[in-house]
């Protein structure tokens, strides 16, 4: 009789344990049912907070995510596909794109880069290019100034040659005469020169000659003395 009582007690314990297990299964099924609203049309509305994941995807069979067999790719969201590419994660398709938000700034070479990082890079490059453009502009100004200086030097050199050539055109006082006043002109490489001068017999055998040549803003002076015997 005692053995029968012990057996019944053990049976009751097993039944209670089985009842608890069934209750746990029902709880899990209830939780799962709140996650999958319509398994026929692949409609997922939400996941329990305990999973740390939430989703809202309405994807009938015709719009379900798809990947190429053996591609090792992942497609997330209605109408998403891998586009026939391998080893990719897709959140849309070539005709339907989605944004990935709240992406942290990448730190490693293979990390994703967010818009803040791109904007910072754009600002840095813009500032750098602005500085370089300023340097290029300054260099261009200096080159223009150098070019102008070279052109001015070339013009002055040609004017000087023209003025000096005009001085050589001044005739000197003839024998038997005392004083000679003369004008001379010359032209060199597009520049004209004019000279004014005078020469005189200061002694019987000595002649003094003075002259000034002018071309543009440049003036050339000259003087000479000759003695004959």
TrEMBL record:
Start and end residues of each Trimeric autotransporter adhesin YadA-like stalk domain: 99-138
* Domain Trimeric autotransporter adhesin YadA-like C-terminal membrane anchor: from-to ranges: 171-229
Q: Would you tell me the Gene Ontology cellular component terms?
A: cell outer membrane; cell surface
Cite the Pfam families for this sequence: YadA_anchor (PF03895), YadA_stalk (PF05662)
Main location per the UniProt record:
membrane
Instruction: Report the domain of life of the source organism.
Output: Bacteria
InterPro entries given for it? Coiled_stalk_dom (IPR008635), Pilin-like (IPR045584), Serralysin-like_metalloprot_C (IPR011049), YadA_C (IPR005594)
By sequence similarity, the record places it as follows: Belongs to the autotransporter-2 (AT-2) (TC 1.B.40) family.
Protein's name according to its UniProt entry: Uncharacterized protein
